[in-house]
Amino acid sequence: MTITSTDNPRIKAIAKLKKPRERRRSGLFLIEGHREVERAIAAGVTIDALVVCDELLGDAELTTDQLDVLRVSAGPMGRIAIRDSPPGVIAVAEQFATRLDDLQLSDNPLVLIAESIEKPGNLGAMIRTCDAAGAALVVADAGTDLFNPNVVRASQGSLFTVPIAVAEAGHVIDWLATHGISVIGGYPDAPGPPWGADLTRPTAVLVGAEDDGLSSIWDGVAEPVRIPMAGTADSLNASVSAALLLYEAVRQRSR
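^ thats the sequence. predicted structure below, dont judge the formating
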């Protein structure tokens, strides 16, 4: 049977997962899009249900083995979706653990610490960059929840493969000291560029909130560095700053 009504009780319940309060209450979240859903399944994310619209899915093949599949028309899919153009599939998935003390690190770790990032698109882009750079991600004093549909969408499935933790900044500082990880932080008035710092050792790259930058709790913890800018702009997008700093570490480590 295909659900055609946007007022179907199950459709209404799934649509509520776009709200942070309902995600916290239920422990569930939404994954939009064929590629993202397939990557979540491949990574072992627990899927409670797949909402599938065959007319929007087209010829794309979809893994549905042993999954609860809810067939819908375009109207109900539009009610559930965040995107203006609804995808052919949306998964209802169980949130996974993000405890800092469980974070798996490499022998010479590279970690991005994102403090108080409020824009879901920025956080999702940072997750993609961590995936590309081989870095873990620690979200300190989260400004948006990791399972926001726009974070999931912007990560393009990297959310399910990057080692990720969420914690308070004070706990993160203690954790860094315990693991012997040095910290560099992006400050607009820092005396030198990131290539003047040694990023070949266990390193955390620290990026602050879009409007306020890094909080004072990091003073004396992070070595300040500055991304040089030749024009009139006095700041960069937080996710762009994170990418530049991470790839300076990648550059140093590849020599």
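DSSP finds nine helices and eleven strands in the chain.
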